[in-house]
Amino acid sequence: MTAPLSPALAPYQTATAEELAAGRRALMGGGVAGQAAFIVDHGAGAVVVDTEGREYIDCTSQAWSLGIGYAHPKVAAAVAEQVHRYTHIRTGFETIPKLLLARRLAALAPGDLNRVAFTLSGSDAIEGAMKLAMRNRSGASTFLSLWEGYHGRTFGTMAVSWPHPDNIFGRWMGPVLRVPAPYTYRCPFGDGMTSEECVEACVQFTRQAILHAVDGPIAALIMEPFQGNGGMIEFPSSYHRKMRDLCDEFGLILIWDEIQTGFGRMGAMFAADLYGVVPDIMVIGKGLGGGFPISAILVSDRLTGFRPGDHSFTHAHFPPSMVAALATIDAIEEEGLIEKCRTMGDYFTSRLRSMQERHRLIGDVRGPGLMIALELVRDRISKEPARREAAWVVHEGMRRGVIFGESKYLGLGNVVKIKPPFVITTAQADRVLAVLDELLTELEAHGLPD
Predict the structure, then answer these.
(1) Which domain holds residue 34?
(2) Distance CA 19, CA 41 (A)
(3) Mean pLDDT across the stretch 212-239?
(4) Of 307, 338, 350, 413, which shows the fewest CB atoms inside 10 Å?
(5) Backbone angles phi, psi at 27, to 5 degrees
């Protein structure tokens, strides 16, 4: 059933088939995911409903942004009140929401990350972190990043991300050196290595790259503590500690991209809390706003901040998003959603590991929290990636009422993602697992359809 509309909203949520078709023709595209086969009407909790009244359990949390679920009433109420007071205030003015959110984030952040700068998108925030690193490492313009890392779609952030296919933008990208990371299921230095041997090989390779592979000083190492877009790759805890030590040894700024991992997704407020490592700069976003656009840069007290004009945007101070963020943090804390994320994450991964014993396509199951991945392989010995199979699971899952995520995009990855809102129920989780079981059973019995 579709949701009722108020007279004020009805003109903007109703349309004829001809109007919708004209809108599709006008859209240029360029997004990284395929077109969904339905039009969204409304959502609640972990479920989204289309304009035909069909329900889907969303295991993508809409680009991992709805940790507290669709249309959380606390966020909706706060924003509804805020927009009647003022909607836009430029960055040179103070508002109570901005000051309260800066105070709240500084209190939540680990270590000495006590200063905050706001943007609307993660890419803007990452570029701000890169600028700060260059401000604090005078004369340094080269960055280290990790294989399979992903940090955004602007020129600067694409440069430090996994290589974009058919990349014609290189001349506008800055100097970057990518180094291997301990993707222990497929260790870049050989499958015969233990996890700790893989960690040590990657750290030592990075050390030698810093010493011998770069002309001039390096500004920073930028990394995700858990790689999302590039393949849902978790690193051993020892890697994070050793890379922190390596940055300290060479005086490099350590930037952690916690845009996906922050605000409970891994069963802790931040991955930095989970791993016990404090970066020099931490970038947050996605789950912070409860569905509203907001990102932020958290900066160590030890670092020099921005100079006037370094990093300013018209809507970087967007009061509705700031109120939404405050309400989101309240909801996470008051409803125990981090603990819920841990509990549901354990439920999913234990069931998936049991499923792995029955399904040869499942090469690896990864967590923690609700940062869950299934790496599909055609053969467990060779680990040949089952890319087409993963794409089919995502496509067919949607037809059966479950929205799974995919790694990378457009069939480039072989990982199926399960990253629902933390408010997903056990009954909904059981339905997700049942659909996945059905899909894998069909694939293994009959192969890919023609």
Answers:
(1) 10-68+336-446
(2) 16
(3) 96
(4) 307
(5) -75, 130
Residue 411 confidence (pLDDT): 81
* Residues 290 and 329 reside in one and the same domain: yes
CA atoms within 13 A of residue 144's CA, in its CB half-sphere: 29
Tell me: the pLDDT tens digits for 298-342?
999 999 999 999 999 999 999 999 999 999 999 999 999 999 999
Give CA–CA dist 63/286, Å, rounded: 8
* SS3 at position 79: helix
5 in any annotated domain: no
Please check whether residue 261 is in contact with residue 225, taking contact to mean a CB–CB distance below 8 angstroms.
yes
Tell me how many domains the chain contains.
2
Residue after which a domain boundary falls, among 307, 334, 361:
334
Q: Please give the C-alpha separations between residue 346 and each of 42, 134, 146, 333, in angstroms, as whole numbers.
A: 29, 41, 28, 20
In a domain, 2, yes or no: no
What is the Cα–Cα distance from 153 to 10, expressed in whole angstroms? 34
Contact 433, 351 (CB under 8 A): yes
Name the strand (E) or helix (H) holding 295.
Answer: strand 295-300
- Answer yes or no: do 141 and 109 share one domain: yes
Say how far apart CA 329 and CA 416 lie, in whole Å. 28
Sign of CA dihedral 233, 236, 237, 242: negative
Q: What is the pTM of this model?
A: 0.96
Q: Express each pLDDT in 104-142 by its tens digit.
A: 999 999 999 999 999 999 999 999 999 999 999 998 999
Query: Is residue 57 left, alpha or beta, with left meaning phi > 0 and alpha meaning psi from -120 to 50?
Result: beta
Domain boundary among 293, 316, 334: 334
- My answer on whether 379 and 347 are in the same domain is yes
Say if residue 97 is in the same domain as residue 139.
yes
CATH number of the domain at 298, please: 3.40.640.10
Residues 275, 237 share a domain: yes
CA pair distance 208, 191, nearest whole angstrom: 22
The reply to whether 323 and 344 lie within a common domain is no
Token readout for 392 is 């089919």
Torsion of CA 61, 162, 365, 199, to 10 degrees: -130
Pairing of strands 362-366, 253-258: unpaired
Residue 1 lies in a domain: no
User: Does one domain contain both 141 and 201?
Assistant: yes
CATH code for position 440: 3.90.1150.10
Quote helix, strand, coil % in the chain, to nearest 5: 40, 15, 45
